[in-house]
Amino acid sequence: MKLSFKPFELEMKHTFTVAEFSRNSTPDVLTQIEYEGLIGYGEASMPPYLGESIVSVTKFLQKVNLEQFPDPFRIDDILTYVDSIEAGNPAAKASIDIALHDLIGKIVNQPLYKLWGLNPTKTPKTSFTIGIDNPEMVRLKTKEASAFKVLKVKLGLNNDKEMINTVREITDVPLYVDINQGWTDKNKALEMIFWLKEKGVLFVEQPMPKTQIDDMVWLTEHSPLPTMADEAFQRLPDIVHKINGVYSGINIKLMKSTGLYEAHKMITVARSLGMKVMVGCMTETSCGVSAASQLAPLADWCDLDGNLLIKNDPYSGMLVIDGKVTLNELPGIGIKKL
Ligand code: MG
After folding, report:
1. What's CA 216's distance to the chain center, in Å?
2. Interval between CA 305 and ligand 1 midpoint (Å)
3. What is the CA(164)–ligand 1 centre distance, in A?
4. Interval 155-204: pLDDT, tens
5. pLDDT of residue 14
6. Where are the domains of the chain?
7. Which of 42, 54, 185, 328 is most open to solvent, judged by the fewest CB atoms within 10 Å of its CB?
8. Contact at 8 Å (CB) between 68 and 35?
9. 114-337: which CATH number, 3.40.50.720, 3.20.20.120, 1.20.1260.10, 3.40.50.10940?
10. Largest Cα–Cα distance in the chain?
């Protein structure tokens, strides 16, 4: 097996603003694993606030020697080796995991969801994300998102009610809200959640800073809506050690979980603890988004719109049809190079 990679800058359609930051592009690295004439595609997307960069991913990938593995089906051996090279680097590791899974699907000529025994019609609707903005822009973006049957509204600055009321002028579809750690007062947070419930919100994602654990335990206990962890965890052991008893559920993203192999296990563990499961993404190409979509039949909710936020997607893959994550019959992660 031969690994190759190249940097790629994802250009955003709109400036993207959440409680923590604002940006126009996202650094990315595209990977390929070649084996006996077949190519598996992968990707590392690195939103700057997570600490990885094109430099760190390149450095990591330069250390990876896949030529020592003659059999691509030894996923456990291969990914255990990749994980052992250096701590951290979840997106870099995901870029290998995704390409390896794509390759295996291509070798047996089946989509991953079939290899996992999943029913492709059981995928949830996906949300489309509305970033924090002035009412005029929020109205425009909400109108542009009319094909989606659920929206994810970013909150946590100082205009939460204005954001929701503006979206509600345009549409009555169900909403997710993502606070990105923006609320620091648990009593105000609870009051706002009761208000949001009346406005047709289904859950609140990462309402408080990940460090305010006692406040979060209290909030989850009293909240009339499920609380979903995002920034508060990354990998499998975190579910037991950081999330269980603190949040109602988890937002799994391949760029945090080191890819599909661990994400699949995370869903099993979360379910065994009675948690809600959401499959999300970063700003990514159709490569990362289509890979994550293979797990969508196992999720309660999906937020798989990352490829729709960029204007230079080099692949086509999973499509959103009538608001629903729609898996295709292509092998592996289900993408074609454009
Ligand atoms: Mg989030």
Report:
1. 22
2. 12
3. 17
4. 999 999 999 999 999 999 999 999 999 999 999 999 999 999 999 999 99
5. 80
6. 2-110, 114-337
7. 185
8. no
9. 3.20.20.120
10. 59
Homologous superfamily (CATH) for 2-110: Enolase-like, N-terminal domain (3.30.390.10)
C-alpha 153 – ligand 1 centre gap (Å): 10
Task: Tell me the pTM.
Answer: 0.96
Structure-token pair, residue 305: 């719109």
Name residue, tokens 């629903």: 324
Which residues, at least 6 apart from 74, have a Cβ–Cβ distance to it below 8 Å? none
C-alpha 333 to ligand 1 mean position (Å): 23
The Å distance, Cα 251 to ligand 1 centre, comes to 7
Q: Which of 138, 133, 140, 139 is nearest to 157 (CA)?
A: 133
Q: How far is the CA of 231 from the centre of ligand 1 (A)?
A: 7
- How far, in Å, from the CA of 169 to the mean position of ligand 1? 24
Averaged pLDDT of the chain = 96
